[in-house]
Amino acid sequence: MTSYVVHDTAVLTQRSLRHILRSPDTIITTVATPIAMLLPFVYVFGSAIQIGTGSYVNYLLPGILLITVASGIAYTAFRLFTDVSSGIFERFQSMPITRSAVLWSHVLTSVVANLTSLALVVIVAVAMGFRSAAGLLAWLAVLGIMALFTLALTWLAVIPGLTATTVDGVSGFSYPLIFLPFISSAFVPTSGMPGPVRWFAEHQPVTSIVDTIRNLYAVQPVGNGGWIALGWCVGLLLVAYALAMRTYRRKIA
Amino acid sequence: MTTTPAIEIDGLTKSYGDHPVLEGVGLSVPSGTIFALLGSNGAGKTTVVKILSTLLKADGGTAAVNGYDVATQPANVRESISLTGQFAAVDEILTGRENLVLVAQLRRLKDSGQIADDLLARFALTDAANQKAATYSGGMRRRLEIAMSLIGNPPVLFLDEPTTGLDPQSRLEVWRTVQELAGQGTTVLLTTQHLDEAEHLADQIAVLHEGRIIANGTLAELTQLLPPATVEYVEKQPTLEDIFLAIVGHDAPPPTQTTTVRTH
Description:
Oligomer: heterodimer
CATH topology of the largest domain in chain B: Rossmann fold
Low-confidence stretches of chain A: none
Strand content of chain B: 25-35%
Distance between the termini of chain B: 36 Å
Radius of gyration of chain A: 19 Å
Structural class of chain A: mainly alpha
Number of strands of chain A: 0
Shape of chain A: elongated
Order of helices and strands of chain B: EEEHEEHEHHHEHEHEEHEHE
Number of strands of chain B: 12
Number of helices of chain A: 11
CATH architecture of the largest domain in chain B: 3-Layer(aba) Sandwich
Distance between the termini of chain A: 19 Å
Largest sheet of chain A: none
Shape of chain B: globular
Low-confidence stretches of chain B: none
CATH superfamily of the largest domain in chain B: P-loop containing nucleotide triphosphate hydrolases
Mean pLDDT of chain A: 90
Mean pLDDT of chain B: 86
CATH class of the largest domain in chain B: Alpha Beta
Strand order of the largest sheet of chain B: 6-7-8-3-9-10
Number of helices of chain B: 9
Order of helices and strands of chain A: HHHHHHHHHHH
Largest sheet of chain B: 6 strands, mixed
């Protein structure tokens, strides 16, 4: 039956993409949070933040991209939760299909929805003055990192999607993820932070990912930081995937 | 007849934590019959259906559907069954037609569009084919659910409380559909808390109470469990249901004026 995993995943992904097309407000809500942060930081606080050379919107965009994903995966969890609580999840599980296709379709839909949101946020940032001389390869590298980061957070979102008992519980888990970038180099350089905060900021994943994307956009060498960022993304992905699959197996047992 | 029963359960047990739900359930459903599992809320009916449809693992005992063991051959069981009722929902955001096409595609059938159109016509849903299922009335929704369950002609159908929340006309429609299906050889396991539903539809009835089957047989056999009936004639007032169906112009047979009432 494993040979049908692609077919079944494709059919179910088509279904959940249709859900998004019928409620595009989920994409709009997803991009509203990052854009609502972009506006005051670029037009109000930005002039007071010391970032060295360059425009603040160029400095800020990478962090905002991560916040976009953190806000978008709340809907991934929500869509899965809706399937579980409505009973359609059980209908699919009782059918002669590859059972894991039900999860994979949600994961793929999440990646498509989040990449769409990211594109919208980049367009808004360009309208606000974001500029990059990055070539195709650098843009592809940014896309790759964001796709990996989205996948990692998506598998993390699968866990509350499967286990939550209320809608509030489903979306609540993403709030800490949205605020993690505040204690990183996303908004201000870490060099001005007091000791322990600075240590945390410099050793948490957001800083290395944000710095890597910033360097790619600024056509600067990525250096070791790129490998650290990649390591965080892949590591988070593997851990989240393992935890999600464990939750899933318990759920269907 | 030596054919294998469509459903065979023996000594089935299941607990949620310390709370035992099934304490040794056994029953056998012959192929092509309608079997009603009767019980009040919390009696364990849904748990039995979930185990039979491979959604839940039993703690002990055996269960087989269409000759396949639910624990060791779940994929074969899923090929043989369809689930309808309180927990196997429709996709509310998709239209009725899209729901049917989705199931046909998942069952890897060719011509999923044609299959959907045929079922829409058969279940009088053609006019609502392109409306979101969320806009359907209770009866339309139940018809859609049953239509979805028929795709691929699975030999065993589980109907979990199929008429709960339906108006009387829709309930009669569902009953008629179930009887048609059984006439074509589909085995139907029906759970219900409505005694009249079991009485009306089922070839065989089992009563599940506190995790055990406390009675099992045809209606005639169950009736014999009680002392012999005495026969007397009373005038029957039309029930509110009879009146309702008559004044809204339903095509049900007119209510009889006298009826035999058994008293014990």
